[in-house]
Each structure stands twice: as C-alpha cells, then as structure tokens.
C-alpha cells in the first residue's frame, strides 16, 4: 500500500514535469520526439535503411515541418502496444502517433488527450485461403493469434462469448513473434486492426496470395494521436495539424502546389496557408506552418494513398477515410 502510494506520487510528479509547454521544449531541443510502432507496414515501419516510413510517420514529419520548419527534425521512438502510453505519460516522447485506438477508458483514465482520428479502422481477421473460412462463425474452436496490450485482446474475448464462438486466443507480447507464429501455421487465424492485417499480409506473408483478410470486422477502431493532459496549446497544434491536412485535400492544396496556392485569391485557401488571418500565430507558430506541413508529405489524401492506398502494397480503399464530400468521415473544422 505504502509502496504503491510512493510510486503513484513519483508518477504524478513526472507527469506534471512533462506537461510543461511541449511546444517550447520541442523548439529548444530543435527536434520532435515522436512515439511510433516497432514495425507496422503502412503506418510506421523502418525501411531497409532504418528510416521510418508510413502514415503515422508522415504526421510526425508534417508536425516537425510545421513547428520547426524541417520534416527531418524528428527522433522516432519505437514503442510496443504495452509501453506506448507510459512513454507519453513520463515525457519520453512529445506525441504518440502509433495506430492507437481511441476509447472512453483510454481518454478518461490515462491522463492523456485523444486527438482527431486520422484513420478509421476495425478489428479484422486473416486466414489461410485453403482453410475455406467464409465468415467468423466458421472459426469455432479455432486458435487465434492476438497481441497483448491491445484493444483486440479484449474485443476477441467479448465477441466470442457474445456470439458463441469458442475460439482460443494465443496471446503475444511481440508482434514480430506473432507474425512468425501465424505465418508458420501455428494459429488458424490472426486478429488485429484490418489495416495492420493488410500490411502484414503484404510484407510478412511467405506468399501473400495464399491469405485472405475476411470482410467482417468486429469493432470500431478509431486510430489517432495522443498527447498529455495539461498542455492544451500542444494538443491544439496536433488537432489543427490533422484538420489542416484534411482541409488541404478538400481545397485541392497538394505537396506540389502548396507554395503556388498560397497566392490564391480564395479566402479559405488564404487563411489555411497563412496568406491572411494570422491563424498560425494563435498557436505560437509561423502563419505559414501548414504550407511547410503540407510540403512535407502532402495533404491527407496524398498521405493516405502513398502509404496505405492503391499506390501502396496495402492497397486499401479510402472507405470511411474518404472526405465527407466523397462519403467518408474525414471532415475538417473550418479555418476561420
Ligand atoms: N489499435 C490497437 C492495436 C494497436 C497495436 O498495437 N497493434 C499491433 C499489432 S496487433 C501493432 O501494431 N504492433 C506493431 C508494434 O508493436 O510495433 C490498439 O490501440 O490497441
């Protein structure tokens, strides 16, 4: 009891220390420290040279460009599902961009803020095609590989109990071991975010065409950034970065034309790109911060297509991640 109290006090003290204006810390350091995954193709994974690539990584780059004027001024910290939130609470990282699902409990109990969703996902299943599985109830009695410390571990149990499917979870604390085990044939199915399954099949499967991601999903997995409570200024920057990238897509501002578009006569484009309205300064940033952010990796649509869309090995549809005007959920709050 006494020891628990000391630990809690030390943790609370370190959270307070870490919540001093993150923007100032980042500017003084000259580098953004971004928490990402240890390896999740399409979102954040090191390439053959060890450089992190992916949708989440492009958010880190856009943020560094917007805040520091240089998308390369990022130090990536690879985090597992288990240690990601502690790394943010303790101040080891400035922001977490790591395919992390937003939930009520994570939002209310961790001392963290949940930023706007940058990828709407759902928990899916992958199986070997020759197993002949067509729907989830065909997985009765199946061994299912699942990662520890994720939303999936809990949802798998809940769904099985509610629907009378007695699947047997095989739980892994390391995702690389989970992939090796599944593709080695030890589990009948593997479950995680449907996007992650597409990435795993595209990059880790011995023969991608032998596997199928089932069309059903069993949960909503809204993925987005996390920041610390008590630093509204920094959380606002994370929020408006996402809306800026979506607004850029809606207005046709791209990586290639951002400088040119800054001279546009369209008031909404002028405000977004800092030609009028002084919006950046209200966040403690340069008024043209979003020009720099968009030039780092493009607008939301460009980031999506390059990393996880048709131009990528994952080949995902835009679906819910299309802009609202095209039937999706990506909708930017107006810049005015
Ligand atoms: N979105 C889920 C799952 C996120 C997650 O950690 N997924 C694992 C695979 S199931 C992953 O990306 N692992 C890569 C890594 O650990 O670096 C959550 O927030 O709990």
Automatic annotation (TrEMBL):
<comment type="similarity">
    <text>Belongs to the bacterial solute-binding protein 3 family.</text>
</comment>
<dbReference type="GO" id="GO:0006865">
    <property type="term" value="P:amino acid transport"/>
</dbReference>
<keyword id="KW-0813">Transport</keyword>
<dbReference type="InterPro" id="IPR051455">
    <property type="entry name" value="Bact_solute-bind_prot3"/>
</dbReference>
<dbReference type="Pfam" id="PF00497">
    <property type="entry name" value="SBP_bac_3"/>
</dbReference>
<feature type="signal peptide">
    <location>
        <begin position="1"/>
        <end position="20"/>
    </location>
</feature>
<protein>
    <submittedName>
        <fullName>Amino-acid ABC transporter-binding protein YhdW</fullName>
    </submittedName>
</protein>
<feature type="domain" description="Solute-binding protein family 3/N-terminal">
    <location>
        <begin position="31"/>
        <end position="261"/>
    </location>
</feature>
<keyword id="KW-0732">Signal</keyword>
<dbReference type="InterPro" id="IPR001638">
    <property type="entry name" value="Solute-binding_3/MltF_N"/>
</dbReference>
């Amino acid at each position: 009891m006494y020891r628990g109290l000391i630990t809690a006090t030390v943790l609370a003290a370190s959270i307070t220390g870490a919540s001093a204006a993150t923007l100032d810390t980042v500017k003084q350091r000259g580098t953004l420290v971004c928490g990402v995954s240890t390896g999740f193709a399409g979102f954040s994974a090191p390439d053959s040279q060890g450089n992190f690539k992916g949708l989440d990584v492009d958010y880190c780059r856009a943020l560094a460009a917007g805040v520091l004027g240089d998308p390369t001024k990022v130090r990536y910290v690879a985090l597992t599902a288990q240690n990601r939130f502690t790394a943010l609470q303790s101040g080891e990282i400035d922001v977490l961009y790591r395919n992390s699902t937003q939930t009520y409990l994570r939002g209310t109990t961790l001392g963290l803020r949940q930023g706007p969703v940058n990828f709407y996902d759902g928990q899916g299943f992958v199986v070997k095609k020759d197993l002949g599985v067509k729907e989830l109830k065909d997985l009765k009695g199946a061994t299912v590989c699942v990662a520890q410390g994720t939303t999936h571990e809990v949802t798998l149990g809940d769904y099985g109990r509610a629907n009378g499917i007695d699947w047997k979870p095989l739980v892994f604390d390391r995702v690389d071991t989970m992939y090796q085990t599944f593709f080695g044939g030890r589990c009948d199915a593997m479950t995680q975010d449907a996007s992650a399954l597409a990435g795993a099949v595209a990059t880790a499967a011995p023969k991608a065409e032998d596997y199928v991601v089932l069309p059903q999903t069993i949960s909503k997995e809204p993925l987005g950034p996390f920041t610390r409570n008590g630093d509204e200024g920094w959380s606002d920057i994370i929020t408006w970065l996402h809306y800026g990238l979506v607004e850029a897509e809606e207005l046709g501002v791209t990586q290639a034309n951002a400088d040119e578009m800054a001279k546009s006569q369209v008031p909404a484009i002028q405000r977004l790109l800092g030609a009028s309205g002084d919006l950046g300064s209200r966040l403690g940033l340069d008024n043209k911060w979003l020009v720099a952010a968009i030039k780092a990796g493009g607008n939301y649509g460009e980031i999506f297509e390059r990393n996880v869309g048709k131009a990528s090995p994952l080949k995902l549809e835009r679906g819910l991640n299309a802009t609202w005007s095209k039937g999706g959920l990506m909708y930017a709050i107006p810049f005015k």
